[in-house]
Amino acid sequence: MDLDTIKKLMKAMEESGTTRVSLKEESGFALELERSPDFHVEPYVQQQLQPPVQKAQAAAQEQTEEAPSEKEKKQPEVPSKPGHDIQSPMVGTFYNSPSPDDPPFVAVGDVVQEDTVVCIIEAMKVMNEVKAGKSGKISEVCIDNAHPVEFGTKLFKIEA
Fold first, then answer.
1. Which residues is 130 bridged to in the sheet?
2. Among residues 79, 85, 89, which one has the least CA distance to residue 159?
């Protein structure tokens, strides 16, 4: 039995409302077709879905737009210090010195240039030097030695 014959048989089943057909040929070929009585095919319509993260962000944004939270009501807005943040360029472990016995690369009050190495981020057993990127004076060290960091974690603050 060929595919066209099977398709014709399926169409005849649909038109007649038959739910089950069983065929056996002398050659030994056997075919059983069965469908539910309420079988119908609906055309596929692709829906534009928002990823779950975007839905959650949109819901959170709507909630914050509606009313300020208790935290916002109680705490006055603190202006951030002027300057430039040095952020982690990768995920890894922050080290403020080349080895445990050495002094830190930089400390609060140190003046740095754009190419001054300020710390090391260890990622997959590779030590990656992080440079200041801007000239200025270190005004804040934002993370403790040997702590994990993510991409974009604030490491230092530099005042111009």
1. 119
2. 85
Q: How far is CA 93 from the centre of its chain?
A: 20
- Predicted TM-score (pTM) of the model is 0.50
As a whole number of angstroms, the distance between CA 18 and CA 36 comes to 9
C-alpha–C-alpha distance, residues 5 and 13, integer Å: 12
Angle CA(34)–CA(36)–CA(37) in degrees, nearest 5? 115
**Cβ atoms of 139 and 81 closer than 8 Å:** yes
- Please name each of the domains of the chain with its CATH number: 3-34 (no CATH), 84-159 (2.40.50.100)
Q: In this structure, what are the phi and psi dihedrals at residue 153, rounded to the nearest 5 degrees?
A: -65, 130
Rounded Cα distance, 118 and 157, in Å = 11
Residues 108-159: tens digit of each pLDDT:
999 999 999 999 999 999 999 999 999 999 999 999 999 999 999 999 999 9
Q: Which of 153, 142, 101, 148 lies closest to 122, judged by CA?
A: 148
Q: Decide: 121 and 149 in contact? Cβ < 8 Å.
A: yes
- DSSP track, 16-28: HT--EEEEE-TTS
Q: CA–CA separation, 116 vs 35, rounded Å?
A: 74
